[in-house]
Amino acid sequence: MRGGMKKHARHALVLVIAATLFSCADGSQDNAYPNPVPLQVAGLLGDGTGPTVTISPREARGASYLPGTNVLRLANGDLRYLPPGASKPSTVPPGDPGASAAANASRDWLFGGTVPGASPNERAIVERALLDLRLLTDENGATLAAPHSRWAYVWPRDASFAAVAFAATGHHEEAYEILRFLASVQEDDGGWEARYHRSGEPVLDGRARQLDATGWFPWAAWFVHVTDPDATRATARSRELWPAVRAAADEAVESLKSNDLPPGGADYWEIPTWRPNLGTAASLRTGLRSAAALADELGHEKESQRYADAADRLDAAIEGEFAPNGYPRTTHPDSGADAAVTFLAPPFALEDPAVRAAVDRASERLTASNGGVLPGERWPQDPTVSWTPETAFFALSAASSGDEREADRRLDWLTAHRTELGSFPEKVDGEDKPQAAAPLAWTSALVVLTLAAAEEPLPEPPE
After folding, report:
1. For all residues of the chain together, what is the average pLDDT?
2. Of 311, 388, 399, 431, which has fewest CB within 10 angstroms of its CB?
3. What values do phi and psi take at 437, rounded to 5?
């Protein structure tokens, strides 16, 4: 673990200074952010065990991956792939032995697990998302958010979802490596910085820490444990991860104030709020339930009871402070609907009719003009630009509740707005064009989980 009193004091000061810049009732900035950066990467080349290289939108024109592989068929019929250990791709004619070996290696890895989907098209979507996730994950378990200079970092939240997506499809080795990486960079207080370099060093650029990681990491550790078909292996690995899970859960417990809610701060919007926000509260609830269940599995009865009790208190506080206003972004009644309401529904929690109604209302209110989803009603950026992770959260929520029609509607939109090579971008602008970073690990993971949930219910943390 890393840490230091000076560093944490500095970040506390940064957070206080940042908070003074926010004046809206829900803590959102008054001014809109700049428009998203243009799409610079359409896909990746690599073998999953070493470096990767990016494919620009220009290079992707007329090209496509060979099915189930990271080998690219160019518009002229030639093949392009990254040989093992190489830093530059090779362009070869069809039938080249090296390209064939690379294609077979991709398929061997892919079908070493499962590929959910009710149709060939759905399975092809999952194949590309899983292969993209693998190429975004280093051998040390560092999962980059996206292959772009502004996103080429490890966000603990995004990486936790990647671990769950790997576990849900039977790729437990990759899932455990991600969790080991996150455990290795955990701070001394049990939390995490907002993001890390792939080497494990924290990115100390003044960005506020995000408490939700202390919820998502225990959830991912529990999910990986309960989905591992090898019980002996699962127990051994979970015992290895337990100190990090315990530290995260302890930090989550200690973060709860006298009202049993976490303090205001940076939520998944990465914008600090004055008041407690739903994105953080809901993720901590899921993490505490998961930590309690994992502690019980490992025989830590005292910790299991402590985390379950804290989750009960947090549940009651969410019910008392957020539910009366329809689960808005913060405890302020006018803070507006937030996509984080899906964090209170399956697969993160048991089904609740009131929450389901709030999810449906938020889905309607947050749908942008291009058909995708905004993070919230008070979102300060361009309202014509949709975000694919938030859209995918509603797809996952629908699939997990058995609403096949709504899940398909959201998935169809996501599928239609991929890059030319089938990768999911972070954003889609008002002209229906992919923007910003692609492939985005968080969206890729969520789409995998959505199609897995449509096939068979995902495990939900017990209450």
Report:
1. 93
2. 431
3. -95, 140
Structure tokens at 79: 């093949």
Between CA 142 and CA 414 the distance in angstroms is: 26
User: Average pLDDT, stretch 358-362?
Assistant: 98
Strand order across the 72-73 sheet: 64-65, 72-73, 79-81, 90-92
pLDDT at 50: 87
- Six-digit token pair at 39? 């799409």
Structure tokens at 239: 């015992």
pLDDT in tens, 191-237: 999 999 999 999 999 888 999 999 999 999 999 999 999 999 999 99
CA distances from 46 to 104, 133, 144, 209, 306 (A): 13, 11, 14, 32, 45
Q: By mean pLDDT, which of 3-17, 68-82, 358-372 is the weakest?
A: 3-17
Q: Which burial class, exposed, middle or buried, applies to 90 when counting CB atoms under 10 A from its CB (0-12, 13-18, 19+)?
A: middle
Name the token pair of 233: 């292996």
Q: Residue 32: which pLDDT band, with cuts at 50, 70 and 90?
A: very low
The residue written with tokens 């950026």 in the block is 381
Mean pLDDT of 101-117: 97
Pick from 436, 204, 462, 271: nearest CA to 349? 462
Question: Would you say the C-alpha torsion 265, 19, 33, 8 has a positive or negative sign?
Answer: negative
Mean pLDDT of the region 385-403: 98
Q: Which of 389, 410, 401 is nearest to 454 (CA)?
A: 401
Question: Which amino acid, 68?
Answer: G
Q: Is residue 374's pLDDT more than 80? A: yes
pLDDT at 37: 83
Task: State how far the Cα of 71 lies from the Cα of 49, in Å rounded to an integer.
Answer: 15
Given a contact cutoff of 8 angstroms between Cβ atoms, the answer to whether 85 and 50 are in contact is yes
Q: How far apart are CA 261 and CA 8, in angstroms?
A: 21
Q: Would you identify the CATH topology of the domain 5-31+121-455? A: Glycosyltransferase (1.50.10)
Residues 6 or more apart from 228 whose CB is under 8 A from it?
Answer: 167, 172, 234, 237
Cis peptide bond prior to 262, omega within 30° of 0: no
CATH 1.50.10.10 placement within the chain: 5-31+121-455
Average pLDDT over residues 42-60: 95
> Is 367 strand, coil or helix?
strand
- Residue 246: phi and psi, rounded to 5, are -60, -45
